[in-house]
Amino acid sequence: MQDRLGAAKAQVQAALDAAVGALPAGELRDAMGYACAGGKRIRAFLVMESARLHGVPDAAALPVAAAVEALHAYSLVHDDLPAMDNDDLRRGLPTVHVKWSQATAILAGDALQSLAFGLLADPAVGDAATRRLVAAFAQAVGGAGMVWGQALDIAAETAAAPLTLEQITELQGGKTGALIRFAAMAGPLIADADPAPLAAYADAVGLAFQIADDILDVTGNEDVTGKRVGKDMAAGKATFVSLLGLDGARAEAARLAAAADAALAPYGEAAGNLRHLARFVIERDT
Amino acid sequence: MQDRLGAAKAQVQAALDAAVGALPAGELRDAMGYACAGGKRIRAFLVMESARLHGVPDAAALPVAAAVEALHAYSLVHDDLPAMDNDDLRRGLPTVHVKWSQATAILAGDALQSLAFGLLADPAVGDAATRRLVAAFAQAVGGAGMVWGQALDIAAETAAAPLTLEQITELQGGKTGALIRFAAMAGPLIADADPAPLAAYADAVGLAFQIADDILDVTGNEDVTGKRVGKDMAAGKATFVSLLGLDGARAEAARLAAAADAALAPYGEAAGNLRHLARFVIERDT
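ok -> structure tokens follow
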């Protein structure tokens, strides 16, 4: 799996560099490129693997993988803003509003979202596939997806009571789950096949991913994760760890990794990389 | 023209209300609906008229008109933020970050951009048309279009010297011109026809529109325009009025209205509504 993850990483970085590099030079473009550098590229890998499972050529999958990572980059830039999570460190570097300004961070995020949708319209993707992808992407991102989850998260900060397990599961299903789900469904969406098995896989992996994040917020090393740790804890935020305990959270992540594995049954041996990913997600240290 | 503008206004408001109404209830959805209410709907009208000139049925044009207005609404919400233009009044009402919060304004803008792209994927538009529209829309909005123009505008505020006429024309070509150009080109884009005449029309109308805005900033009545006037003047910002004088700006707007008229020659009598619009844009008082 690491070979393929590395390959997806390099391909997607080249695609993002080309897309950003085609824009007029200036601070906005610099900030967009900065925000698109690095990252684990798990979402891109999901797109490439799900495409491969459905016989979709790399040339059609790559713009979609780049779109998902550009969208993810926008969401991080906006989430880090002072009015949102107020983070000064991301991937071990100053966040965009710290390095440039809040205005540049807002605009770079906005332009990265446009760029992401534009990538879905790459001629290699095909007309019908582009239409299906754009509709699903808008759903995954907007007022019923990622942005909705982030709004719930912001609201929770000033809520009278900490969130329940049900509420936090719903919130994370939007905030981090929706885009992971889209990435995993990209292959069947392009190929016009049934996306249900990969959607079920992604829902389990997405939640496991978030639980692992909460565990890292408690046990992680800032030098390794490249972002502030202990933040949620200090803020008294409800997390999977605060609700389930550290051992309970680890057990739930393991249970979800097994559920993700089971969801891949229709693909048999061919889904080996996605099986590895589900384990990687809960065992990572960054 | 007023009849058709009124009809487009009602149709587009209904389409936006339906799209926003389909989202999960909450503050985010409320803020999105609030941001989508009102406005002159000139961009929607451009889409509907350009579609009509190319024999595109209303059912295919309407989602595109709604997309353009949702996108315009997002841009206003983000432009009004304290880190950007810091406006507290819009269409005679408190801006989104004043009524709710900066976080909600950032998120509502983000979700409106997603909503806009999603509307372009309406099945009534058609697969190939959706792909052409998404590509052109991303170009009009992102790091080479509207967002780029806004970034130039923000940079100009802290620049050592006021902008030249050439620079301000380039800036406005992005900030307000790019979306107006997209709206006017929507018909040929859907119909896969030559967009050049409507692009030339839109470039002239878009610039005339901005010059009229600058004139209103000097001569306008806050009660009528529904937004703060005299702001640019007070900030010492270069505008078409500061660069050309009031009479010079009026003459340039009139010259551009005539150029817009001339660009419509290939459409003959059928383009009567677009001819009226070009005059309306420079004669408006809001």
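Chain B touches chain A through 55 residues (CB under 8 Å).
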